[in-house]
Amino acid sequence: MKSELEYLELLKEYGLLVRAPGRINLIGEHTDYNQGLCMPATIDRSIYLGLNNSEKWSIEAIDTHETWEQGQSWEPDWLVYFKGAIQLAKERNLPIMPLKLAFGGNLPAGAGLSSSSSICCGFCFALNEHFNWQMDLGALTKFAVKAERQSGLEGGMMDQISILNGKEGNALLIDCKDWTFTSYPMALPDHRWLVVDTKIKHKLVDTDYNARSQTCRQILLKLQEEGQSIKALGEVDGHKLDMAKNLLNEEQFPLLKYQVEENERVRKFALALVKKDSTQLGNILLEGHRGLKDMYKVSCDELDFLVDFASKDPRAAGARMMGGGFGGSSIHLVEKNTITSYQSDIAAAYHQQFGIHADFFEAEVSDGLKRLK
């Protein structure tokens, strides 16, 4: 896997260069598109993107050795994130001209670390800089959210807010109702955050991710029709949940119950982070995973195995699946003095169970998106 310096060398011909980080999400999964709470943090694993003026559009994916040029009939999967931003710029009559671009990074795709949003945010940020659109971070965040939705994914705004506003050493507690956020220092004296990639790759637009989002919209409409004065499911509390029980079917109610409980977990997690209470943090992670597995039903056997391993191992305070689900990564809170042995043991157990070599890295919490040149 290439380092930042290696990507900078590969992109040295470009006059504008940006680094768009990936993100982990500590707690608050599938809540952003319901205007709930979440707690992501940007990491050092990133996408690097460079651009120059050109007579026609040309985009190179360094890591896969793929190049798309304007007028070409073949379109790689990743092109949708660029086309969405270009189309949105044209719809808004923003100045935009053909560019030569290249991108690559040490952020794995399909691992639940927001690689697609990193590409899209990096490109939107670069366009804003290059063509002097003069968007502030708030406007740019909204632009990037809408641009990525052109891909067909009915997601929220957690990834974009995190990527554009991340702060080294801190998680952001985001209220997705009004897009405000508060920074919380993440440093724990005796524990580290370990990301374990199942190597089961997902493309969220092709999974049941959108089905969950659509069902949540149906739930909201049903509650509004029955007189609940709410604008989003993130506003539902325990009292409103009890009132909704007889209004929803057996598929809908567990999704709503999960949303209410997960928002409360985010609040508890923030308090435990302030207290540096690793035991409480670990318990909340495990509770969150149970909700995603049993109520939201977005986990898979591989993720469940990794979290189950953590729940039974004293070296880990806890773990949960992370990202949209259906594969991707899990995040583990592990004692720093035992992280090497823990990684070795969980890797061996995972390979024995599934015949797959998982990928691992210790999450280093970094600043958000930056222009490097």
Describe this structure in words.
With about 375 residues, the chain is an alpha+beta fold. It has a domain at about 5-185 and about 365-370: Ribosomal Protein S5, domain 2. Helix content is about 40%, strand content about 20%. The protein contains eleven helices and twelve strands. Strands 1, 2, 3, 4, 5, 6, 7 and 12 form an eight-stranded mixed sheet that branches. A four-stranded antiparallel sheet has the order 9-10-8-11. The mean pLDDT is about 95.
Descriptors:
Ribosomal Protein S5, domain 2, globular, 12 strands, eight-stranded mixed β-sheet
Mind sketching the topology for me?
Elements: H1 4-10, E1 16-27, E2 37-53, E3 58-61, E4 66-69, H2 79-91, E5 99-105, H3 115-130, H4 137-149, H5 158-165, E6 170-175, E7 180-185, E8 191-197, H6 209-225, H7 238-244, H8 252-275, H9 278-295, H10 301-312, E9 316-322, E10 329-335, H11 339-354, E11 359-362, E12 370-371
Parallel strand pairs: 3-5
Antiparallel strand pairs: 1-2, 1-12, 2-5, 2-6, 3-4, 6-7, 8-10, 8-11, 9-10
Helix pairs in contact: 2-4, 3-4, 4-5, 6-8, 8-9
Provide a compact summary of the structure:
The chain has helices at 4-10, 79-91, 115-130, 137-149, 158-165, 209-225, 238-244, 252-275, 278-295, 301-312, 339-354, and strands spanning 16-27, 37-53, 58-61, 66-69, 99-105, 170-175, 180-185, 191-197, 316-322, 329-335, 359-362, 370-371. The chain is an alpha+beta fold and 373 residues long. The two termini are 23 Å apart.
